[in-house]
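Risk register update: the risk that structure generation would not scale has been downgraded. Supporting records follow, first protein first.
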Amino acid sequence: MRAPRQSLVVKIIFFLAHRFFIVYVCRPVRLEDFTGLQLAWWGVGTLDLFHDEDITYVERLRAADVPCEVEMVKGAFYGFDGIVPKAEVSQLFFNSRSAMLRRGAVTGGGLANFGR
């Protein structure tokens, strides 16, 4: 049995609306008001497709007096820590993120961002 054409059109509309929301609304770099952000950790590799965008966002956080720590991994691409989780560089990356979480938990300042 074929689905009615109207059902397909509705699915396409929802798919496009979802894509718009994820791509244009959920991207932190699009934030304009950093009020209430207390502590941020951002991890990015130098070969990450969004490296420059990420660094711009971190600079904006810092300009708004949001305490921000950046873990930049030379030669790393997006998702490297998930692809090779046991590599030393991935372990160091994970440890950096974990240390920031502990500091945030101890000081009571929630994390503004959790990196990628």
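Supporting record for the second protein:
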Amino acid sequence: MLDPFCGIGTTLVECGKLGVPAAGVQANPVACLASRAKTDWSPDSTELLEHAMPVAQAALDELKRQGIADNPVPVSDYDAIAPLRNLSPESQALLLSGSTRSSKNWKHNWELMR
């Protein structure tokens, strides 16, 4: 599949997930960079972790140097501290059904989103 105006590469990603060979072209250098980042599935998670650990340690060291205690919040307590907000059921439905201009109810959907 050739996407001559691939933007940030969403179509290329979907092709990759489906095993469809794809190539894209993008003139905008920022969009091209984003597309390359999204479609580069070669990073090794072990290498990423090896790089992340020293960065995390440096951050902890800096916090300690500044006298700031690192008090991580257990995952089970997140909701009590900053509860997640949800879209209304009508808005959630728009994420799929009203996400294209071809939606028959576009005017109604627009009003719900305003």
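The chain has two domains: 1-41, 75-113. On this basis the risk owner (M.S.) recommends closing the item.
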